[in-house]
Amino acid sequence: MKKQELDEPNLRIGDLARRTGLTPELLRTWESRHGFPRPQRLESGHRRYTEADVAMIKGVLHRRDAGTRLEVAIAEVTGATRIPVHSVYAELRRAHPRLEPHRLKKSTLLALTWAIEDECCARAQRATIFGAFQEEQYYRKAQPRWNELARVGHATLAMADFTSEQGDDERPVRVQLADDSPMRREWVVVCDAPDLPAVLAAWEIPGQQTVPDGDRLFESVWTIDPQAVRHAARVCAHVAQAAGVAEASTLIEELAGEPEPLSSDPADAASLFGRVVAYVDRLS
Q1: Which of 86, 101, 162, 265 has the fewest CB atoms within 10 Å around its CB?
Q2: Which structural domain, as residue segments, surrounds residue 103?
Q3: Torsion angle (degrees, nearest 10) of CA 74, 80, 82, 85
Q4: pLDDT tens-digit map of 256-270
């Protein structure tokens, strides 16, 4: 078979399941837990696989059946030396290409962020919440709101370049970003909850040292799609794990499963949209 045919993403997940003897549910579980197999996504969000994926899965199964642990078998077959992507924005754009980016001023991002935070506090049940603030000075301005989120959330983590130590009983949990972390330039809020999934991710356009703070531009995406929200939450959990946060491993396990479908009640989206409009109007 020619390499071009091996690389052609023309297999649906059902096709892959039939070719490998696995179920679609198990393939999705492997993808969420091990990053394998790694599908290509259509603009609709549907997964597509290649003949090379079939061959790699069969190689993994052969090694597993010979007694090799699954994660080791996957690493052997894929040559998995890839460092996990530690950018929420980059991962959302890669895995969910239907999300349309927009350049927004910081003041508009604040309106979106406050709306998500408010809805999360008011309605989300057992939410897992992540925020990325770039620098500690920006986190300090949001800290009263995030203290409240930590009070009502299942788990709440704040990521930034922190210069002060965290107190023993202080919440949210702080995640110290590495010097070379792409998250240092990102603005992120993730609310992963069955009744209120939402994510906003943005990265700051370079070269704005002389721009007034409220006018700084960010390239941004946001959505209430549960799959995209869960993907963003997983990235954040892996960033926290790499930073040595003890709770991160448990969160990674909790976020490994598929999220619940989005409620069909239009009032849910309308409530969030209403808050956004109110905050935009207030800040304009």
Answers
A1: 265
A2: 88-283
A3: 0
A4: 777 877 765 655 666
